[in-house]
Amino acid sequence: MEKIKILVVDDESRMRKLVKDFLEREGYQVLEAGDGLEAMEAFYAEKDIALIILDVMMPKMDGWQTCREIRQSSKVPIIMLTARGDERDELQGFNLGVDEYISKPFSPKILVARVNALLRRSNVLDADEHVEAGGIVVDKAAHQVQVDGKDVELSYKEFELLSYFLENQGIALSREKILNNVWNYDYFGDARTIDTHVKKLRSKLGEKGEYIKTIWGMGYKFEVN
Question: Distance (Å, rounded) from C-alpha 13 to C-alpha 221?
């Protein structure tokens, strides 16, 4: 079986090596580029790149422009790296079609976890049948949820929403992204549907409902305290 290819784009060679080492330990094949122009060359030369990790601040062509170029012809998952940590940057990234957004400095293990989650959502990796976090256990095959060993009854969409949150721990999820992934792209309802389901889900999870954090003006993030 061929290894899944990931393109890492960063003008800092030490950063590229750090990310590459962790991804290769996970079994991925890693391609490197030092700026946006190199990234585009690699992207067009390699037709089977499954995911791109893209730094914002680079010479010749920055991450934003590189993302725009890629999005003209591809929906390949993109994780954007930045040292700024500015909410405006994050919103700009999502508007350009960035799938995830990570501020430097970051934990390489967290980056790998987000890569795995994003590839599962893209159906490149098989999704785990069991997902667990903070005493919450989701059994996807049996369609069951337990909190601290006790069964919790959820509606179908509440179950799907909780599963999506657990698979994307620590990741800021916009309402639009939640709608697209849980309600699917053919859903044309109001985004407030999400808020209603989150409220019910928090209530059913009891104290564990606090793990679902509200990101004002954007959406939600599941994070174990």
Answer: 31
Angstrom distance (rounded) from CA 66 to CA 203: 43
User: Rounded distance, CA 101 to CA 114, Å?
Assistant: 10
Distances in Å between the alpha carbon of 150 and those of 36, 136, 146, 157, 204?
50, 9, 5, 20, 12
pLDDT tens digits for range 19-72: 999 999 988 999 999 999 999 999 999 878 999 999 988 988 989 999 999 998
Query: What is the rounded radius of gyration, in angstroms, for the C-alpha atoms of the chain?
Result: 18
- Calpha distance 22→175 (Å, rounded): 31
Indicate left, alpha or beta for 103 from its phi (over 0: left) and psi (-120 to 50: alpha): beta
**H or E element in which residue 214 lies:** strand 212-215
pTM: 0.58
Residue 78 bridge partners (DSSP):
52
Alpha helices (H) along the chain: 13-25, 36-45, 63-71, 87-96, 108-121, 156-167, 175-178, 192-205
Residue 223 structure tokens: 């994070």
Please state, in angstroms and rounded to a whole number, the distance separating the CA atoms of residues 175 and 137: 24
* Residue where the block lists tokens 């929906």: 75
Alpha-carbon distance 54 to 81, whole Å?
6
CA distances from 19 to 36, 131, 181 (A): 17, 25, 27
